[in-house]
Design goal:
Elements (H helix, E strand, L loop, with lengths): L1 H9 L20 H5 L5 H8 L3 H11 L2 E3 L1 E3 L4 E3 L2 H6 L9 E5 H5 L1 H6 L1 H9 L7 E6 L10 H7 L6 E6 L5 H7 L7 E5 L13 H4 L5 E4 L6 H8 L7 E4 L4 H9 L6 E5 L19 E5 L6 H12 L7 E5 L6 H11 L5 E5 L5 H10 L5 E8 L2 H8 L7 E8 L6 E8 L2 E9 L8
Parallel strand pairs: 1-4, 4-5, 5-6, 6-7, 7-8, 8-9, 9-10, 10-11, 11-12, 12-13, 13-14, 14-15
Antiparallel strand pairs: 2-3, 16-17
Helix pairs in contact: 3-4, 15-16, 16-17
Length: 430
């Protein structure tokens, strides 16, 4: 056998033998594209030590994203400002910066003047496009200062994110709303204090803003609608605390919107008799934790939000069991377009999972909890999804003899178990 294997290899043509690769012969045009495929800084750091050529192409990647961090084991702060100030030419590579309130509030930062050094280095980053401020520790001291915003006003910022557990204060807010030409904006402030809902800012952002995240909108619906009306170019909206009935009026103001991430916040407001003119959503995420009032109205509301064909992705985070009729009604409109289906909540039955895979033939990704007696039943349920590329299931292994999901109810003076889903003997019902 060994001699036959040697003879077989010896008879192979020269073209079948992989040639050795000399790095000096590698085209420099494709090297940056290869290095961008790496997603770990440690890998870029290793590449930077290979040669001067690799170092030249890797350095911009290493300094494109800068984050401040605390190294607890050494009781020191790792911050890029020292390197940027020592080598100002590196500032031209910086595109994304994240500053953390924990770092700037620490004793080490105050004793070494780190905040002022960070501001000086930030002012040198003339090619920066994104700044994120994260204050992840509740405190009465707000390090997001006017000096920080004064530096941002001199830079070509296109993406701004502010996440804080404390109210940033009126003075800082008044300076923040002076920023213009923002394309992506994310504001997640504390629940206490004055609500921050772009009052006085939306007018300045109307000609540029295409992406908006608002963490809390506990304001009158009329004020929310008025503010959103100044942002007709929005393409993606993530918003919390808006009554579900108000969402229809908001969507009529956003003809270019294609992505919506919102809570289902049930309200009793009346719907108008004239149909709303809604945009065609491609991505929809709905979150809810209520168990009482949303059982019937939630599913009808979702169908009314996406009346036009074209939905590409649906994500549901709910405590309610998805009705079979909802799946069928959704498929009647979006059968040819839906590719991504994700559910977090109660376990789906195998029949419902099979229904999803059958009714949406273009599905490429499915993620959901499911109850199943064995792996073969899961394989059978998803076998109709011919285009499936990704399958992530949270499986509850149910007994093949007794597999029911339901609740205890009182009927005619007796306690009975009302079956909602039967996983025992799956039967196709579509």
């Amino acid at each position: 056998m060994a001699s036959q294997e040697v003879e077989r290899n010896a008879s192979l043509p020269d073209a079948a033998v992989a040639p050795s690769v000399n790095l000096s012969q590698l085209s420099l045009d494709i090297l940056p594209h290869i290095l961008r495929q790496l997603d770990q800084r440690v890998d870029w750091h290793t590449c930077a030590l290979v040669s001067r050529t690799f170092n030249r192409f890797t350095t911009p990647l290493l300094y494109s994203v800068l984050d401040s961090d605390v190294i607890a084991s050494k009781h020191t702060i790792a911050h890029a400002c020292h390197t940027i100030l020592a080598r100002p030419e590196l500032a031209s590579y910086v595109r994304f910066v994240t500053e953390t309130g924990t770092v700037h509030r620490s004793y080490l930062a105050r004793s070494t003047g780190l905040t002022q050094l960070a501001l000086r280095s930030l002012s040198l980053c003339h090619n920066i496009i994104s700044v994120t401020w994260v204050d992840d520790v509740p405190s009465t001291d707000a390090p997001l200062s006017s000096q920080f915003l004064s530096v941002l006003k001199t830079l070509p910022i296109r993406d701004l994110t502010v996440r804080t557990h404390i109210d940033i204060g009126d003075r800082v807010w008044e300076q923040m709303i002076q920023l213009t030409d923002i394309r992506r904006l994310s504001i997640w402030c504390a629940m206490e204090g004055r609500p921050r809902f772009l009052q006085g800012w939306s007018e300045r952002l109307g000609s540029s803003l295409i992406y908006l995240e608002l963490g809390s909108c506990n304001l009158p619906p009329t004020l929310i609608i008025t503010t959103i009306s100044h942002l007709p170019l929005l393409q993606s909206l993530r918003i919390k605390g808006v009554p579900s009935g108000t969402m229809f009026e908001i969507l009529t103001l956003l003809p270019q919107l294609h992505s919506l991430d919102t809570e289902y916040y049930h309200s009793t407001c009346r719907r108008r008799s004239v149909p709303y003119i809604l945009p065609t959503l491609r991505n929809l995420t709905v979150r809810t934790s209520s168990l009482d009032t949303v059982q019937q109205t939630l599913w009808r509301w979702i169908l009314e939000i996406v009346p036009h064909p074209g939905l590409d992705s649906l994500t549901l985070n709910t405590e309610s069991i998805i009705p079979r009729m909802f799946i069928l009604d959704l498929a009647a409109v979006h059968r040819k377009s839906l590719k991504y289906f994700s559910v977090t909540g109660p376990h789906m039955s195998l029949m419902d999972l099979e229904c999803v895979c059958y009714k949406f033939p273009e599905l490429e990704s499915v993620m959901c909890p499911v109850a199943s007696p064995d792996i073969d039943s899961i394989f059978s349920a998803v076998s109709r999804a011919r285009n499936l590329r990704s399958l992530k299931l949270d499986v509850s292994w149910a007994s093949a003899q007794y597999a029911f999901q339901g609740r205890w109810v009182f009927e005619d003076g007796q306690q009975k178990f009302q079956v909602v889903s039967d996983f025992t003997t799956p039967k196709r019902m579509w």
